[in-house]
């Protein structure tokens, strides 16, 4: 019995079944009444304020301090240059995400 549940075919079937059920659930949840979507204005404004918090003055200053600290650590050999580039790419992606989503949405 353990060999059946531990086999790669069972794991693959379980993963595919889970992904199918997840997609079906998302499809059913996305098919809601349009009147229900109008009550999400407070949630949208809270999410917008959160994005502004992380990409505004606070996020830029924290990102600058992180870059300075990582660059000094890499210069003195306490941090690898590859890790510096990975974190720098993550910070650049964080700041570009809001602009990219706005561009794709047509704003």
Describe this structure in words.
This is Conjugal transfer protein TrbC. The chain crosses the membrane at residues 61-81. It comes from Phyllobacterium zundukense. Residues 1-37 form the signal peptide. Keywords: Membrane, Signal, Transmembrane, Transmembrane helix. The chain is mainly α and 107 residues long. The chain folds into two domains: 1-32; 42-107. 84% of the residues lie in helices and 0% in strands. It contains six helices and no strands. It has helices at 2-5, 8-30, 34-37, 41-55, 57-75, 81-105. Helix 5 packs antiparallel against helix 6 (81-105). The N and C termini lie far apart (56 Å). The mean pLDDT is 82.
Described by its quaternary structure, the protein is single chain
| Biggest sheet statistics | none
Strand content: under 5%
Tally of strands: 0
- Helix percentage range: over 70%
Number of helices: 6
Number of domains: 2
Uncertain spans: none
What is the H-and-E element order? HHHHHH
Radius of gyration: 22 Å
Global outline: flat
- In terms of structural class, how would the helical and strand content be classed? mainly alpha
Mean pLDDT: 82
Head-to-tail CA distance between termini = 56 Å
InterPro entries: TrbC/VirB2
Membrane topology: Multi-pass membrane protein
Main location: membrane
Transmembrane segments: 61-81
Summary?
It is found in: Membrane. By secondary structure, the chain is mainly α.
Topology:
Elements: H1 2-5, H2 8-30, H3 34-37, H4 41-55, H5 57-75, H6 81-105
Helix pairs in contact: 5-6
InterPro entries: TrbC/VirB2 (IPR007039)
Subcellular location: Membrane
Organism: Phyllobacterium zundukense
